[in-house]
Every structure is written in structure tokens, then in C-alpha cells.
């Protein structure tokens, strides 16, 4: 989280970037779903043939040949001759996944529940991101619902600015998410150390983040943890929204949620005072979007204060007052955009996709082209050597065995509960 420090943010240097659409860019299209394996199709064919009167070896051989030929046409594996072809676009493992299918490399991310590592698929040598979550932590903190929500919600997402989930599996102590590897690092790295972005580069990232959050809402979900650390950049410089641990479907009767989740610096007044307001709706994601907008263009979160207390309580008081102070270099239009998103009264705030898109800040943005992934990124990491993780911070692997033996319920008969809580992984 970008917080206030002793150094006043300085205006970003103008590198000449202007938001634009690439005229020759091909629109993004959803990846074709991998069809059934040839053996599965043949098994189905045998069952159908048995119902209509027999099955000969010759017919079986013909069906196998046809199925194999079709499989080769339908499933195109990434080639290492392609640009960054070492990054898996789909999972080549057709059997039930296990840790034995991967060579686990360096850690590229870490959170309270676990860590994310770069992993090589042994079968074809391509790379994925492997998110490892501690079962003991999940059960101790009653987060079973969160990990199941992440598996279900992210597994059903297909969007150019949302990370792809290939598979999940589990062992005795851990849950595993096999994810698309996004090699460009966190968007937060662009503003680390009181750095900030000029308006035009910020507008590019905000347009893609907006498209991702709008898609999450269109699918009926609330995201609830939007911040620069949860946005990665791919090799071409486009955004990927990650970490759906706090995402959920709002209750159907009222749409109000009461759970205390998220990062305090990005939480709205109705989240922080949910007991008084009776709860909050998914429009809190647009409040967080306003916080991210401010942070990208100033280098700090809107309710942090230079040389002042940045405790959770101090941030809470500033959020409830709703007063946002801008550095002098931020121009009128971005200021107005952020203020419209960060009004304490939700009834006066920008809370609909139509209203946000219609603001003058986005006047030059073609959102249809953005959603087709045709906008030109400000920067790109380009072609990288296989297994490159140079755009991520350096972490060390945790000693998981000590961490996972801390579950006090492991000895009191909670094994059955733990197994049922993680059913489906």
C-alpha cells in the first residue's frame, strides 16, 4: 500500500505517451476451451456403439485415429519459438493435478494465507504461477468460504484483464491454485517510493482496471480488494486483476454485505461504519477505484498523510470526513474525477459504470477497443528468457511445516471438518 512519507511526491516526467488505440491490433477473443481427450471421446463412442449393436476392433481403430488427428488440430501447445511461448496458455496436464507435476521455483508473491511461486510444468516445460494456501491458516481464521469463492469465481472468469485459473488441487496441508503466470510484476512497482504516473499513462491502466471490475460486477460479484498490488502487468504491458479471495456474490435479498474484509486505506465509509449503515454493496469497488486513481497520479493513497499518524483509526477518521488533498501538480480534470468517486455520501458518488465512463477524464477513451485489448500500453517488458521473474520482489520460501503444525483443531477431531470444507479442490 502506498502511504504518506516524509518526501512529497513529485510530478511524473512526461515521456510523451498519449492514450491511443492500435489500429492494426487484433481484438482479444476468449481462448477456445480444450475439448475432451481422444481417449475420453473414444470411450463415449464405445458406449454409444454398444447400445446400437456391437463394436469391432476395426471401427475402434478408425475412431482412435480420427480422435487423435482432431486432437492435434484443436490443441495447439505454446512453442518456445514464439514470443514468451514459455508461459503456459493452458494446462497440458490431463490427469488429476498434484505437486509432482511441477518443478516449483522462486516465490513471486506473498500474502497472509500463503505464497505464489513460479512453477515449471514437467510435461512440456511451460511455466505457470502456483498459489499455495495453508489449510491451517484458513481453518484458524474461518476463511474456508473465501478460498472456495476464489476457486469458483475465478474459475468461471474469462476476460483479457483477469488472470486465468487453470486448475486447483490439494494435499494434506495445502490448497493449490494453478494460475496463468503474468511476468511484468505488480502495478504497484510503478509508484513505489513516492513515484507517480503522468495522467495519460495512469488513464491507460485505469481504463483496463475499470473494464476488469465492470466485468466482475456484470457476472454478479463484488471484488472487495482493489489496490495496485492486486494488478499485475503482462509482457505486453496490459493489466491482469488477481487475488479473488475476498470476492463474493452479494446476498440476493438485500445486496448488503457486512464482512470486514479488504485493505483499510481503500475501504469506503459504508464499509468502515457497516454496523451503523447496515452494510455495504458492491459499489464499494468504485470507491477503491477512486483511491487507486488518486494513488497512481500522486504516489500515495488519498487518506494517508505526510508526517501524520497512518494507523487504521486515523485513516478511518479521514475517510469519514472525506477530505482529499491533492499535490499542486495534479490538474483540475483528474482532481474532479477522483473527488466524484470519493464523496463520503454514496448517494452523491459516481457508482455506475455509465457515469464513470461518461466523466470528462475518460473522454478520449474508447472502452470498446479497451475491452478488446487494443489500447497501446505505456511500457512493456517484451520478450523474456524462460522462467524470468526479474520484475518481482525477491522472497524466500516459508518453512511451511512449522507454520502448518500450529492448527490447534488438528488434534481435537476437526480433520473431518477440514476435509469437507475443501471439497472440490
Folded structure, characterized:
The protein has 425 residues and is α+β, with helices and mostly antiparallel strands. The protein is built from 14 helices and 7 strands. Among the domains are: 109 residues, Phosphorylase Kinase, domain 1 (2-Layer Sandwich), CATH 3.30.200; 185 residues, Orthogonal Bundle (Transferase(Phosphotransferase), domain 1). The protein is globular and about 55 Å long. The two termini are 31 Å apart. About 14% of the residues have low confidence. One of its GO terms (cellular component) is cAMP-dependent protein kinase complex. Belongs to the protein kinase superfamily. This is Protein kinase domain-containing protein. InterPro entries: Kinase-like_dom_sf, Prot_kinase_dom, Protein_kinase_ATP_BS, Ser/Thr_kinase_AS, STKc_AGC.
List the helices and strands and how they pair.
Blueprint: H1 38-52, H2 57-74, E1 102-110, E2 114-121, E3 127-134, H3 135-140, H4 144-155, E4 165-170, E5 174-179, H5 199-218, E6 231-233, E7 239-241, H6 269-272, H7 274-277, H8 284-298, H9 312-321, H10 332-341, H11 353-358, H12 367-371, H13 400-404, H14 415-421
Antiparallel strand pairs: 1-2, 2-3, 3-5, 4-5, 6-7
Helix pairs in contact: 1-2, 5-8, 8-10
Amino acid at each position: 500500500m502506498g502511504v504518506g512519507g516524509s518526501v512529497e511526491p513529485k510530478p511524473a516526467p512526461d515521456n510523451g505517451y498519449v492514450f491511443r488505440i492500435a489500429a492494426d491490433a487484433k481484438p482479444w477473443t476468449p481462448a477456445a476451451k480444450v475439448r475432451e481427450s481422444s481417449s475420453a471421446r473414444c470411450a463415449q463412442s464405445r458406449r454409444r456403439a454398444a447400445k446400437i449393436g456391437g463394436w469391432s476392433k476395426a471401427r475402434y481403430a478408425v475412431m482412435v485415429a480420427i480422435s487423435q488427428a482432431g486432437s492435434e488440430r484443436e490443441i495447439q501447445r505454446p512453442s518456445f519459438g514464439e514470443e514468451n511461448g514459455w508461459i503456459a496458455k493452458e494446462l497440458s496436464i490431463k490427469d488429476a493435478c498434484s505437486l509432482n507435476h511441477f518443478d516449483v521455483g522462486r516465490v513471486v508473491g506473498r500474502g497472509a494465507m500463503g505464497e505464489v511461486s513460479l512453477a515449471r510444468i514437467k510435461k512440456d516445460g511451460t511455466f505457470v504461477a502456483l498459489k499455495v494456501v495453508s489449510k491451517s491458516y484458513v481453518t484458524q481464521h474461518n476463511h474456508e468460504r473465501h478460498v472456495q469463492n476464489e476457486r469458483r469465481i475465478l474459475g468461471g472468469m474469462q476476460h483479457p484483464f483477469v488472470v486465468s485459473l487453470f486448475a486447483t488441487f490439494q494435499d494434506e496441508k495445502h490448497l493449490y491454485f494453478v494460475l496463468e503466470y503474468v511476468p511484468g510484476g505488480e502495478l504497484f512497482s510503478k509508484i513505489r517510493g513516492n513515484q507517480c504516473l503522468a495522467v495519460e499513462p495512469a488513464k491507460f491502466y485505469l481504463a483496463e482496471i475499470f473494464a476488469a471490475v465492470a466485468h466482475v460486477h456484470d457476472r454478479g460479484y463484488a471484488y472487495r480488494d482493489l489496490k495496485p498490488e492486486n494488478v499485475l502487468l503482462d509482457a505486453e504491458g496490459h493489466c491482469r486483476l488477481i487475488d479473488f479471495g475476498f470476492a463474493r456474490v452479494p446476498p440476493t435479498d438485500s445486496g448488503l454485505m457486512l464482512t470486514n474484509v479488504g485493505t483499510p486505506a481503500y475501504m469506503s465509509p459504508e464499509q468502515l461504519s457497516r454496523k451503523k449503515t447496515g452494510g455495504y454493496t458492491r459499489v464499494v469497488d468504485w470507491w477503491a477505484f477512486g483511491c487507486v486513481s488518486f494513488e497512481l497520479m500522486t504516489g500515495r493513497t488519498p487518506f494517508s498523510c505526510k508526517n501524520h499518524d497512518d494507523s487504521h483509526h486515523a485513516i478511518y477518521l479521514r475517510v469519514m470526513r472525506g477530505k482529499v488533498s491533492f499535490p499542486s501538480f495534479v490538474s483540475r480534470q483528474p482532481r474532479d474525477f477522483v473527488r466524484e468517486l470519493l464523496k463520503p455520501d454514496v448517494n452523491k458518488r459516481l457508482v455506475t459504470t455509465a457515469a464513470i465512463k461518461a466523466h470528462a477524464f475518460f473522454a478520449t477513451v474508447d472502452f470498446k477497443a479497451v475491452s478488446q485489448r487494443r489500447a497501446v500500453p505505456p511500457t512493456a517488458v517484451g520478450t523474456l528468457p524462460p522462467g524470468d521473474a526479474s520484475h518481482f520482489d525477491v522472497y524466500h520460501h516459508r518453512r511451511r511445516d512449522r507454520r502448518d503444525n500450529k492448527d490447534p483443531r488438528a488434534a481435537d477431531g476437526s480433520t473431518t471438518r477440514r476435509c469437507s470444507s475443501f471439497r472440490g479442490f
